[in-house]
Amino acid sequence: VAYSKHIVHIYSYHGGNDLRNHLEVDAHAGNVNDLAFSLPNQQLCFVTCGEDKTIKVWDAVTGNKLHTFEGHDAPVYSVCPHQKENIQFIFSTAVDGKIKAWLYDNMGSRVDYDAPGRSCTAMAYCADGTRLFSCGTSKEGESFIVEWNESEGAVKRTYHGLGKRSVGVVQFDTMKNKFLVAGDEFQVKFWDMDSVDLLTTTHADGGLPSSPCLRINKEGTLLAVSTTENGIKILANAEGSRILHSMANRGLESSRGPPGSVAKGPIVGAFGTPSSSTGMSLSMADRSGPGASVAGMNGDNRNLPDVKPRIPDEAEKSKIWKLTEISERSQLRTLRLPDSLIQARVVKLIYTNSGSAILALAENALHKLWKWQKSERNLLGKANSNVPPQLWQPSSGVVMTNDTREGSKEDVVPCFALSKNDSYVMSASGGKISLFNMMTFKTMTTFMAPPPAATSLAFHPQDNNIIAIGMDDSSIQIYNVRVDEVKSKLKGHQKRVTGLAFSNVLNVLVSSGADSQLCVWSMDGWEKQASKQIQIPSGHSPNPLSHTRVQFHQDQTHVLVVHASQLAIYEAPKLESMKQWIPKESSGSVTDAVYSCDSQSIYAAFDDGSVSILTATTLQLKCRIGPNSYLPSNPSSRVYPATIAAHPSEPNQFAVGLTDGGVHVIEPPGPEGKWGMSPPPENGAGPSVSSAPGSDQQPR
């Protein structure tokens, strides 16, 4: 087991529950990033790599250091020991995308390759050791899974289906000599090694992080995958299910986890059947958190807990379930971010893709950036409600302020978009569009002086140089920043365009406007494929200034539509209406809403100061946060959240931007808290799709 602070522990297993701490080794300066067992010349060793840019080989019995390999120019991310015929060697990969190979002889690196996309990469052989694969993620968030031609040091095959905007480095494993498995986009993805196309995927009943860790057991029958709740789900094929059930039926203790388990939180038993062709199997190695990396987990698993939790029947559930109402500060964790600058109504809010900062745009065209630093209280340096961030400003004193035009504030629709690598923000507040460097706050360029003014912005998912710009003259312009040229002009709306969202899977752009209309555009030729008018409930007077927004679910097919009167789910590309939720009149109007990072929940803000949390699949309300639980008491004027943002890797964390200029990070109480329970489906037959207006409990 390797830790984030230079230490490696070696355990010896003696059967039953007898697991003994055999060695403690001070392995590297800083993080120990990876470790693996190896057997050079029949001597049991373990190989480590770390933040200090070195790879080290240790005697597993005595703990003596046998070799130190130096030559990487960046921290070493992973190691892969292997033996080919009589040649024993170690592949190593660094965070700068360099791949090197070493013999056990202290003679330096024998090869020097570049990983695809200069990505942070891990390597693995198939079970019989004849084929080499790697999987990694670049700084821009693009992920690659490939097969290598070892003799030439070249990529032999590139597999399709990984996301273009991964959060964290995508983890993968090989399944015997047949399949590849990777954790990406909140799901587990499978490929046949001989076909570049994605074979199948599974969400494992939800609850997975954006880039889950995963491992397959040697037999290819069990697959372990990490969850957002610090647990492990075990997925199994038919043979794996039979083994697990036979273990559970032996009546052994169910209170202990499997030997060598290092994950905090519950061990979650869940059986998945993603495809009869894959035959899944796994053993867990968590490489992501401050806890540990694990090597050699093929021990005796007789102590697996009983994986058949008692599930109450639907009638019992319906009696138990109750809407979670939060009305006091003690019922949640909240932090108002420190602010020494002029405060004005927050109109746009977003977390950076890394999850370590929040960017806000205020009504006065000023941007503010809060950064969380790594510390003893915040080991990962991620945004949270426990540790205040720093309101970040460069030493030059420059601030990011948009170009503005004189006129009514009501006519201005501020908008911004963040590049995948968090390096640039594109932003507009009624004037020219500005491109800012997020490190220096310098204005890189300005373009497109009004009229018309930009009212919505989105980066093309495959090319950061291309942006879609919604305009207040109802057009959409496809603009190439690098060559300063409008490539296409799309016309289909009647009023200003206030929402844009790309789908990589469907290869489409969805737009929404103040005309309450949705449009779908093909990314190939930019022709309009479909349009749909949003169903406005009777009695709701249309507001010409209302901003309809759109966001894709993580499946890149279902679209969340946010309107002052409602939330709705549509299915692209035909824009079929799936569900509609109309809040009670007493809640006021919806000001903004967003999917949680795992697309399991929807956070919706209202102009009465409340926040509603809904189950995304059914649009059923599961929690309501009252304004008194987080807003300042007795404010001089009415304060409410004008915009809302979801953390990119913590599904229960969100932030609100307030009309008084404040920004609050909000989390449930306790380290593993959740926002209430989802209500049971009606009659056990799935969610209802119609309800009377004003019903908070069921969707339309």
TrEMBL record:
Checking Pfam families in the record gives: Beta-prop_IFT140_1st, WD40
Which intervals carry biased composition (Low complexity)?
Answer: 684-700
SUPFAM superfamilies the UniProt entry points to? 3-carboxy-cis,cis-mucoante lactonizing enzyme, Quinoprotein alcohol dehydrogenase-like, YVTN repeat-like/Quinoprotein amine dehydrogenase
Chain spans, region Disordered: 281-310, 661-700
Domain of life of the source: Eukaryota
Positions annotated as WD repeat: 25-68, 490-531
Q: Which UniProt keywords apply?
A: WD repeat
Key word Protein transport present: no
Q: Which InterPro entries match?
A: Beta-prop_IFT140_1st (IPR056154), Quino_amine_DH_bsu (IPR011044), Quinoprotein_ADH-like_sf (IPR011047), Topless_fam (IPR027728), WD40/YVTN_repeat-like_dom_sf (IPR015943), WD40_rpt (IPR001680)
Residues forming the IFT140 first beta-propeller domain are 426-615
In its UniProt entry, what is this protein called?
IFT140 first beta-propeller domain-containing protein
This chain's source organism reads Brassica rapa subsp. trilocularis
Name of the gene this protein is made from? A03p041850.1_BraROA
